[in-house]
Amino acid sequence: MRMLIMGPPGAGKGTQAAQITSFCGILHISTGDMFRAEIKESTELGKKLKSYLDSGQLVPDEVTVKVIEKRLQKPDCEKGFLLDGFPRTVPQAEALDGILGKDGLDLIINISVDSAALLERLTGRRVCKQCGKTYHLLYQPPQDEGVCDNCGDELYQRSDDTRETVSNRLEVYQNQTAPLLDYYAQRGIVRDINGEQSIDDVFQEIKKVIRGIV
Predict the structure, then answer these.
(1) Rounded to an integer, what distance in angstroms lies between the CA atom of residue 86 and that of residue 214?
(2) What span, in angstroms and rounded, lies between the C-alpha atoms of 136 and 183?
(3) Which residues of the chain have pLDDT under 50?
(4) What is the pLDDT of residue 31?
(5) What is the pLDDT of residues 75-92, one digit of tens each?
(6) DSSP states of 83-140
(7) pLDDT per position as a tens digit, 41-59
(8) CA triple 103-108-113, angle to 5 deg
(9) Is there a domain that residue 96 lies in?
(10) Domain assignment present for 150
(11) Nearest CA among 7, 5, 11 for reference residue 120
């Protein structure tokens, strides 16, 4: 099985990806992990990646595609894989088709969550300034408001968790992803999963989809 997991920020892709790869016995391939591996090995690609990331620039598609191609050519990908974080755009999907050949991907798992629910999830996070323990105002609140249970220090909201920042991230995702979903929907390989259920119920739904394709 060659799969791609999709979903907006806060949809729970990372949690589900870990369970999917364990269930299927395949690799979880994320762009972030690949970038870090290349940089750690100080390869030519790694040096290019580091220069872009250190300067705060987006990594160009041609560089990302080379990293992906190199990874997918390794023997441990022969049994299948789950892509996470690539492709994000139609041009990247077209490049991936060029790498994989005529068969392409087998399945797109799209975890769907309402924007209002995502705002609630992402803006409710609070972090301890001292020990770094993470809370959520609705799902995992501290015993005393604004105070860490662990060390008693003050909790704060990270700058990337504010309503304005989260709204922008969701808008960017939607603008990039809607065309990508349309691209794969034409092949009939997109399966939408209700991401507003419990973590276990989401995974049960994903398992049913996978069993129906294998």
Answers:
(1) 23
(2) 36
(3) none
(4) 86
(5) 999 999 999 989 988 999
(6) EES---SHHHHHHHHHHH-TT--SEEEEEE--HHHHHHHHHTEEEETTT--EEETTTB
(7) 999 999 999 998 888 777 8
(8) 170
(9) yes
(10) yes
(11) 11
CA dihedral 51, 53, 56, 61 (to 10 degrees): 90
User: pLDDT value at position 160?
Assistant: 82
CATH label of the domain that carries residue 159 = 3.40.50.300
Q: Alpha-carbon distance 87 to 61, whole Å? A: 10
| Residue 197: closest CA among 184, 206, 208 | 206
Answer yes or no: is 46 within a domain.
Answer: no
* Run of H or E residues at 166: helix 163-185
| pTM score | 0.84
User: What are the φ/ψ torsions at residue 204 (nearest 5 degrees)?
Assistant: -60, -40
What pLDDT, on a 0 to 100 scale, did the predictor assign at position 214? 66
Q: Which residues are catalytic?
A: 13, 88, 125, 158, 169
Q: 């040096």: which residue's tokens?
A: 47
Residue with tokens 């769907």: 112
The pairing of strands 125-128 and 134-136 is: antiparallel
Whole-Å CA distances, 68 to 63, 76, 110: 9, 14, 21
Indicate the number of domains in the chain: 1
Q: Which domain holds residue 140?
A: 2-26+79-213
